[in-house]
Structure formats: structure tokens, C-alpha cells
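Why run this: before we spend reagent on co-expression, it is cheaper to look at a predicted model of the complex and decide which construct boundaries make sense. The entries below are exactly what would go into the expression plan.
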Amino acid sequence: MTKQTLSFQAEVAQLLHLVTHSLYSNKEIFLRELISNASDACDKLRFEAINDGGLYEGDTELKVKLAFDKDAKTLTITDNGIGMSAQEAIDHLGTIAKSGTKDFVSKLSGDQKADSQLIGQFGVGFYSGFIVADKITVESRRAGMKETEGVRWTSGGAGDFEVETITRAERGTSVILHLRDDAMDYASSWKLKDIVNKYSDHISLPIVMEKEEWKDGELITPGDEAGGREPGGMVKTGEWETINQASALWTRPKKDISDEQYTEFYKAISHDFEAPLTWTHNRVEGSTEYTQLLYIPAKAPMDLWNRDKKAGIKLYVKRVFIMDDAEALLPTYLRFVKGVVDSNDLPLNVSRELLQESRDVKAIRDGCAKRVLSMLEDLAKHDKLPEPAAPAEGEAAVTDVVSEEDKAAVGKYTKFYAEFGAVLKEGLGEDFANKERLAKLLRFASTSSDTVSVSLADYKARMKEGQDAIYYITADTLAGARNSPQLEVFKKKGIEVLLMTDRVDEWALNFLNEFDGTPMQSVAKGAVDLGKLQDETEKKAAEEAAETLKPLLAKLKEALKGKAEDVRLTSRLVDSPACLVVQDAGMSMQLARMLKQAGQAAPEVKPVLEVNAEHALVKKLDGSVHINDLAHILFDQALIAEGGLPEDPAAYVKRVNALLA
Ligand code: ADP
Ligand code: MG
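The model came back. C-alpha cells follow.
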């Protein structure tokens, strides 16, 4: 192939512009990205070589080489991994292949600060080289191809790039960065060591660099800054040294890994700017052996709501990288977890299909789910500092000394729950084995709490004498829930009601009939039965009213035929004349509405109209000549009060206007 000039895909050009303009304050990440690509390329070679050992071409010592040349103003990152064919270089370095990246680029706002956050979440990869280079040359040969089938790719990072065929003896890839004048400090062994140490220490391959010494023969030792010496006074020794630990982070003993190292590893595998909330790292022994390193991010990604979203777990088998996004290793409701699982038992040639069926994988999945739940339980336990005990009579108050660790943990669970609580709830329907543990992790707002912080156990502990159910209401918004007429009698009697406003609540609650022996009861379902909470006089008054109002109820029922399943008196209302409820086993009106909005088939829900015998309006109804119109208005208003819309809004307005006139 002779030299040809090709254009970048439009999105790449856009991304390139952004990378060079918005990541200015975080320049050094380019090295992390390029080393990570080199390491990926070696992983790919190792993986393909499982079936074709010839790809090694006799060289099995995979590594990454860093070399700089101050005079030529270049920094070169070389690997002996899988390499690229000419076509691959065109495809991989000229277009954005990664699914979702195009969407991502279209989301960028042009606001540099916001965009650089987004870019951080996404990982800019290869193109980040242009932060420090005004020209990049890539020379590569794919493993297994002829020496004459090498490729040179060159670009100045603007609209286009050049490719040509070259002869290249070595397998793998060299990325040659032609450093910008203001990036010349990256042509320094201290600087490079420092960055590798910070971002790439977890890379399991050796990263090697040529040793330098001062002109007088003294070797440079790590941490030995130039300290007044002439920076140009160093010479290369021809000896290569490994500058990272070159062992996969998760294989090292916990005690040898600092929090910073755990955090940087997380950032590298997740492309997240922010540090994780917490992590767990364990070697599991027994019938299946594996190592798990699992992280909980601090922020939800943009695509959290997509249940098909890629899982965040990388699978290794005996240190060999097998696949990203191994969805079989965690249940779907834990899809926000990121990390690594390294199995000792799975075969190296394991496929996604095989993973679905493997018993070892099932054991790993159960083990990982349990670990994540323990991690969450631990966060929940330390979310608040314990209240200091009240001092006994005559004794001085004693305050426990709180450890720094406990202090640091405060508020983490609240933060977690705000980001991921709704996803966690999917687990009630997905993971029956852990349902009880999940139920304990739920938090809600309630009529006694403005924040989403009430656990079911808290609620139970506050239940009124004689109360035998945990009451809840679901609504579209917190204000809608709080002001629902259905809560009136509960407010009057001071009974706490949980307020649920996540879209998933309705569905999830179907799987949670009780908590710790106490039934869960929607206040919008079934006839309200306050049982022992109602006193004798109230019960008697209700029975009498039911008797006298029987004829009125029959008339209302007749007027609303086809619209209401039934019309009955209720004790749940105090200030409102009427409300709608559904039968105990029925789908709630809110869920039916949600399904309809989502374009899904929903069964026709015919609600029950409940009326308040004590309300002035209801008292006036009996004998009114407008009873028919009033029945419809009552019904439609009840619907509006709970966030719905009358089936025929125009007819509703007409009726109201007629009465007003
Ligand atoms: P990502 O690594 O997330 O796929 P990058 O922008 O970092 O995205 O890299 C784009 C693609 O270019 C890689 O997926 C890979 O196919 C190819 N590539 C980049 N660097 C190398 C390399 N050193 N060796 C082989 N292929 C590479
Ligand atoms: Mg990459």
C-alpha cells in the first residue's frame, strides 16, 4: 500500500478537538491511556495465543517500553502485543468503534468543565496522546503477519491521517509522540516514573525504561530530584530497568496495597474521575477458587437505567485476561459494581455461553453478590455515628472516641442510596435468596422524615401500639405522596406512612409482602382496615353511616357504572370528600398509568370510589338534582388528586362550569 491520506470520522475530529482543549489541566493521563492500550494489546495476544502458540514468534516476554529522546523531542511507548494490520490501524485509530461513544460525543455541551468530567467518565483512550503531542506516529505489525506487512500511521490530530505500508521486524506497536514544546518535561525519567507509579503501577506487565546516570557516573535513584544539577547532564546507560511492580494489583496481599493504589486501579478500570465509595478484596478458597476485587462507585453512570448496560466486571482466568463486561458474574441489579474476578478453575478458552452454564460461575456469582451486600451493610451500619449514651444520674457525660475511619464512613450509605438505591430494589424481584438482606438495606422517605433515610426496621420500631402493618404509598412525586388524600386518616392518628416515589417501587413491592413478620400494606389498595387502631365509637359511627347512606351509594354506583368498580364509604379520609383505591390484589392505578405511558399493555384498572360520609359535600349529595354530574366530578377530582387525568377532561370542565354557573 502506498501512502494514502484519509479523513477522521466526524465524531473523532470533534473528540480530538475536545481532548486537546479541555483536558489541559490533566495532561498526564495520556500516559495511562497509552500504557493501558499496550497492556490490552498484550492481553489480546496472550488470549489469541491460547489457540495459536505460533503468534508469540518465539518471544513470550510481553512488556511495555518507554523511551524518550530529548533532541528529537519524542516519547515512544512500545509493546510486543497483538499489533495492528494496516486495515486495523485505519479502523481503530480513525473511527470510533466503541458502541456508545458516538452518543457520548453528541452529549458533549461545549462547556469545557462539564465536558472534561464527561470525558473522564468515558476514557478518551488513544486520542489523549494529542494533549502532549502535535504529531503522533504509530508503527505496528500484527502478530503472525509478514515483516513486510507493517503499517505506519501518522497524524497531526486535525482532520486527517496518513497510512502506508512499512517493513517492521518486531511484532507489536510503537506509539511515537512528537512532544509539544510545553510538554517537554515528559521527556524525563523522573517524571515518567512518577506518573507510572501513580497511574499504572497495577499493570501486570513489566514497564521498562532505559537507566540513566549522571555524567560523572553516579546512578540516579528514585526520588533523587535534579536538585540543582544540570538537567541535561544525564546519559543513558544501555541498561533497561522495570519501573513498576509488574504484578496484577489483585494478586498482591492486601496489606501491601495502599488506598491510593486501590483508588487508581479503580479509576483505570472504570474510567471514572472520582474515587470509589468503597471496595472489597478477597481470595475465596473452597470448592471454587477465585480472587474478587469489587468496587462501588460514588456516582451513577449515565446509562445506569439501561438493564442491558455492560456489566462492570473483568474476568481473568489464572491471571490471563479473558473478557470485559462479564455479565454472568453478578446479578443484573448489581450492575453498578466494577471490578475484577480472577478464577483458578475456569478453562482459559471459556466463552460467554459457557459462562452462563458453568457451576463454578454460579458459585462465583453468588459469592460476589453476597460480598457486595456485606459491603453495603457495612456502609449502612456506619452511615451515622452512634448517639452518645445519656449519662447516668450524677455521672459526667462520656463521649466515645470515634475513629478516623468511622468518621470517614459517615454519610457514605446515604450517598450510595441516592445514586443506586432504585437499582438495588430490582433485586427484590431478581434475587430471592437475598431478599431479606436487601429489604434491610432499603431506605424511604416517610410522613415522619423528609430525607430518604427510614429503614423498615426503623419504621417497625416506631409502630403504634395495635398497628399491625407497615403502611406505604406510591406516587410520582414526593409532594404528591405527602399530600395524597389517602393519607388523611393516618396523619390524624399519627401513623407513619412510607412515601415511595421511585418508578421501580410499585413493581419491587410486589415481591415484598412482609418485613420481619409484619405485612406491607399500600394505603391505596383494598378497604382501609385500621383494626385495633380504630376506637369503638368510631367503628359504631361508621356502621351507622353505612346504613343511612346505602341508597345514596347505590345512586352513585349507578351513575358511575363502567367507570368505578364499586362505591363505598371509607374511614381513610378526613378533609377530602372522596378518593380512589384499587382492590387488594389489583394493579395500582399508578403502575397502570406508568405502563400505559411506556406503551405497554396494562390491564384496565377499574378503581373503587370511596367517599367520606363526614364531608359536607357528600352530605349535600343526597337528594341533589345534580347527583349524576356530581358523581362524575367527585370521581374525576379524586383521580386528579392522585396525579391522574380524567378520561375526558373536556367533559369534566363542562360539568364543573355548569355547576359554577
Ligand atoms: P479502547 O482502548 O477503549 O478500545 P482507545 O482509543 O484507547 O480505545 O484505542 C482504540 C483502539 O485502537 C483499541 O481498541 C485497539 O484496537 C487499537 N489500539 C490502540 N493502541 C493499540 C496498541 N498499542 N496495540 C494494538 N492495538 C491498539
Ligand atoms: Mg484504551
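The chain has four domains: 4-242, 249-381, 443-523, 537-660. The pocket of adenosine-5'-diphosphate (ligand 1) is lined by residues 33, 37-38, 40-41, 79, 81-84, 92-93, 98, 123, 125-126, 173 (CB under 6 Å). Bring this page to Monday's planning discussion.
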